[in-house]
Write a structure and sequence with these properties.
Strand content: over 45%
Structural class: mainly beta
Shape: elongated
Strand order of the largest sheet: 1-4-5-8-9-13
Helix content: under 10%
Largest sheet: 6 strands, antiparallel
Order of helices and strands: EEEEEEEEEEEEE
Radius of gyration: 32 Å
Length: about 210
């Protein structure tokens, strides 16, 4: 659009896992939340060189809007135990009984922002440090408990509830390498071969014609 403002098309595929954990680190139970692979397609508006701390440095910022959908497209509903290793219908010491209903929607609108810090290695090559945050506008996956029971310290069965909402939101920090394609803005153009004239100059005495 201009030297400072650009409009771009974005295509993203993320595979960041989301889990529910119960127990201490390295022990206990874990269950995934929703589909890990998420596709995005949308547009972004980017502002270039909002901050330049040095001659080779530059910071760009961008705002984006997209539609995101899971790899398994379509509405999906599942009911059953959250921990698939739970065979008993009663809670056990250290093993709660959690029955849930999981609903996954088709997709959601998602908005995001990005900051890109670059260091120019040359006219076409650069190092890139990118920080991105994307947030879904409505739930992609919802998990609600239909039955949750656990044993307290006295061995008495207690009841509880569980609700987990995933909007497909995520944040990333990436270090990369970039190559600038196309014609450079400051590239010099090759000029045609100049033509020289051999016409004599009347003011030059050495080139003045004499007649007898």
């Amino acid at each position: 659009m201009s030297k400072r403002l650009g409009l771009g098309v974005e295509q993203r595929v993320t595979g960041l896992s989301q889990d529910i954990r119960y127990g201490r680190r390295g022990t206990g139970f874990r269950a995934g939340v929703g589909e890990n692979t998420l596709h995005q397609s949308g547009l972004s508006v980017r502002l270039y060189d909002v901050w330049q701390p040095g001659p080779r440095w530059g910071l760009d910022v961008a705002l984006s809007g997209a539609y995101a959908w899971p790899y398994r497209y379509g509405r999906y509903t599942h009911e059953g135990p959250l921990w698939y290793s739970t065979a008993s219908r009663l809670p056990q010491p250290g093993i709660p009984l959690v029955l849930v209903r999981e609903t996954e929607r088709q997709g959601t609108a998602i908005i995001g922002m990005e900051a890109l810090l670059r260091y120019e290695l040359g006219p076409r090559h650069m190092l890139l440090l990118t920080a991105t945050y994307q947030r879904g506008l409505r739930p992609l996956t919802a998990i609600t408990s239909t039955r949750l029971e656990y044993l307290d310290s006295n061995g008495v069965i207690q009841q509880g509830s569980l609700a987990v909402i995933s909007r497909g939101s995520y944040g990333t920090v990436q270090l990369g390498y970039g190559v600038r394609l196309g014609r450079l803005a400051g590239a010099t153009q090759r000029s045609p071969t100049p033509r020289y004239s051999l016409d004599p100059d009347d003011s030059d005495p050495d080139t003045t014609l004499e007649t007898e």
